Amino acid sequence: MTNPAFVFDHWASAHQQRVEAVLARTLPDAHVLPARLHEAMRYAVLGGGKRVRALLSYAAAELAGATPNAADAAAAAVELIHAFSLVHDDMPCMDDDDLRRGKLSCHKQYDDATALLVGDALQSQAFEYLASTNAAQALKQVQVLAKATGSRGMCGGQSIDLQSTGKLLSREALETMHQYKTGALIEAAALLGAYAAENTAQPLIDTLTHYSQYMGLAFQVVDDILDATADTQTLGKTAGKDALQEKSTYVSLLGLEDAKTLVNNLYAQTLERLAGFGPQADPLRGIAKFICERPF
To answer: Which domains does the chain have, with CATH numbers?
Structure first.
């Protein structure tokens, strides 16, 4: 049962503003030495993005019974990691993109060396912030985030992606790549939020794991659809790069209409997973709707 008074846009806006403020407080001031690095870190993180991963942390924390204050570190940490991944992803040795979130990529605004250090520093900042919170929960959260960013998570997925350029991947291989590259951090975002509560029950962790796995896949399929159909201004990054770089995508593998059908099926499975929860799961339902119904 949902709450008819719940308005996802209002909830999301409030929590996007909240995590933005937390990030602004957490990041070193741009005037503190080394000033150029700190300025670039703030440039890469603040004032942009949908904050979907932070919203997932807050929503999962809410379902687990944690307060927003308890979830702040989880939400900020996952956004710092996400920003680090984008900075490195845009560099010439990776996906080589000049635009991110509607403005120049970090390495274009500054330089390659600064961008490399920005990513390194943001990763460290994320773990430092998590480790400064409640000791019992922090250890589990650090483990979750470390796994999501390592060789069997985000970094591993990026490695597979780079090796697969120009190759036709099977659907199974494509799903494995994106389970690592995109899905691992989305799953971590939900679990970080859940572990912000004390003594989170294993059945809830299992539900959030399945939910986030569906959403991680849906997020990537929608990204592939948008890359094939939207323009650069809409995306905030260069459109059509997947085709130009001869990358396997869900659109190239399944076709546009079947890719859309897959998103719809994943959305239905997600709602089914949440069917046993009341209004406290409305933020998670809203995030699923937002991810799956981005215009395409």
So the answer is: 8-292 (1.10.600.10)
**DSSP string computed for 229-252:** HS-HHHHTS-TTHHHHTT---HHH
Return the residue matching tokens 């379902």.
63
Neighbours of 107 (CB within 10 A): 27
pLDDT tens across the length of the chain (296 residues): 667 778 999 999 999 999 999 999 999 999 999 999 999 999 999 998 899 999 999 999 999 999 999 999 999 999 999 999 999 999 999 988 999 988 999 999 999 999 999 999 999 999 999 998 876 789 999 999 999 999 999 999 999 999 988 888 999 999 999 999 999 999 999 999 999 998 899 999 999 999 999 999 999 999 999 988 877 766 666 766 666 667 789 999 999 999 999 999 999 999 999 999 999 999 999 999 999 987 54
Chain centre to alpha carbon of residue 285: 17
SS3 at position 268: helix
Q: 3-state DSSP call for residue 105? A: coil
Beta bridge partners of 104: 99
Nearest to 8, CA basis, from 296, 295, 291: 291
Owner of token pair 């780079």? 162
Q: In Å, how far from its chain's centre is CA 43? A: 18
| Rounded CA separation 189/29 (Å) | 26
Helices (H) and strands (E) in the chain, counts: 16, 2
167: exposed, middle or buried (Cβ count in 10 Å: 0-12, 13-18, 19+): exposed
pTM metric for this prediction: 0.93
State which H helix or E strand residue 228 sits in.
Answer: helix 202-229
Pairwise CA distance, residues 63 & 291, whole Å: 19
